[in-house]
Amino acid sequence: MKLAHALMLSAVLALSACAGNRETPTVELPGGVNEEAQADAQRAPNVFDRMIGNDARPNVGPCPLMGVLYDTARVVKFAQPNNQRYANIEFTGEMQGVRGLCRYVDSNPIAMNMEIEMAFGRGPAATSDRQTYRYWVAVTRRGRAPIEKVYFDVDVRFPHGEQVVTHRERIEHIEIPRATADTSGENFEILVGFELTPEQLQFNRDGRRFRIDAGDTQAPGQ
Q1: Where exactly are the structural domains of the chain?
Q2: What is the pLDDT of residue 211?
Q3: Side-chain half-sphere CA neighbours of 55 within 13 A
Q4: Quick one: pLDDT at residue 167?
Q5: Could you give phi then psi for residue 193, rounded to 5 degrees?
Q6: Are strands 89-103 and 74-78 parallel, antiparallel or unpaired?
Q7: Whole-angstrom Cα distance, residue 49 to residue 62?
């Protein structure tokens, strides 16, 4: 699978909630269930319905697991890489959560969108009010190496006097092919994280951290 082609913007795809949150509606009449209405809900849509995204059938399985990879959930940029002290912080970043929706019926690929909540801090050593952060989105088989990994840049501007800004990044369309109609979304994971230098990654793995508001005058939290 080439995620570079799958992670593409789409303004027309209608996504439904994950399976399990949505069931085929039934109408209770004096004589019981309206079987005709129930059959209509289960019937495969025609070509026109598919074109306009009108398909009320539930997903055939659960959505892939979505999450932030712990070791890459934070980034701390120091003015001098070998000086990992609070006064030497230029910028910080933190991924605070991820959520999304998926849609797949019959043997169709899994179509998803995703939102990533981020927060960014400007530290005491910063000399600019702008910083570009790079992050990645990876599709993996559960517990295995990534199938595909794509990188994105976020250009953050800190308004005058503001040391912390929040941002919501939206990935409009992720498509995951399925080998068969029985292949469930629970076989896949979608993970996100910051692109880090080896030193930044080791900083995180050592359990060291500063608050996202590292630019404030208060003492940093470790």
Answers
A1: 24-57, 65-205
A2: 61
A3: 24
A4: 96
A5: -175, 165
A6: antiparallel
A7: 23
